[in-house]
Prior knowledge:
The chain is an alpha/beta fold. The chain is built from five helices and seven strands. The protein starts with a helix and ends in a 7-residue tail after the last strand. The chain is elongated, with a radius of gyration of 19 Å. It has helices at residues 5-36, 45-55, 72-79, 91-103, 134-147, and strands at residues 62-66, 83-88, 110-114, 127-130, 153-157, 168-169, 174-178. The chain has a seven-stranded mixed sheet with strand order 3-2-1-4-5-7-6, covered by helices on one side. Helix 2 crosses helix 3 (72-79). Helix content is 42%, strand content 17%. S-adenosylmethionine (SAM) is lined by residues 33, 36-38, 40-43, 65, 67-69, 72-73, 87-90, 93, 116-118, 131, 157.
Amino acid sequence: MVFGPFFLIAWVIxxxxxxxxxxxxxxxxxxYSVFSGAPFLPTDERNVDDMIRSSGLKPGxxxxxxxxGDGRILIAAAxxxxxxxxxEISPFLCLWSQWKIRRAGVADxxxxxxxxxxxxxxxxxDVVTLFLITSQMGRMEKKLRSELPVGSRVVxxxxxxxxxxxxxxxGRGVYLYRQTERKAP
Length: 185
Ligand SMILES: C[S@@+](CC[C@H](N)C(=O)[O-])C[C@H]1O[C@@H](n2cnc3c(N)ncnc32)[C@H](O)[C@@H]1O
């Protein structure tokens, strides 16, 4: 089969438009994630284990990871028998983590929502994990203190909340908080 110059030009246009859309989406979501939460930087596996252990996560409980990145915390939570839900702003990380979850064989327990955690409420979570940046910790503290049920735990990697009293520091930057009462926002 012989392709004329029309097909060649059409393919070049499709390629250029496709790559621009891909690059634009990547740029926009990365910029938004830096502005609204934190850029993608995965928690190292040893600290993932520390976070799960210090939260006291039990089989059947619901863990929510705010900004779930490549899904490593969700997979670790599902492996202890918990239900795990992540919110992730980047479509690429969302797809990648969904693929990792399927490959790990825990798709019945773990799922990822594409979207911003600022637009969701987390009234059902038993455990919340997060790895944000300092400038977002005050806003997130107010949100979680007004939404989470009493008895739930929050584990923050690397950064502390400005006012919430620490329940435990388990080492290597893993900070544990307990919701003792719901506070008005
Ligand atoms: C520092 S990474 C942590 C990833 C993962 N939780 C971990 O510990 O390995 C922060 C993640 O939050 C995501 N993120 C940033 N802002 C967000 C927002 N407003 N809503 C949802 N995800 C967001 C980023 O795309 C990134 O994947």
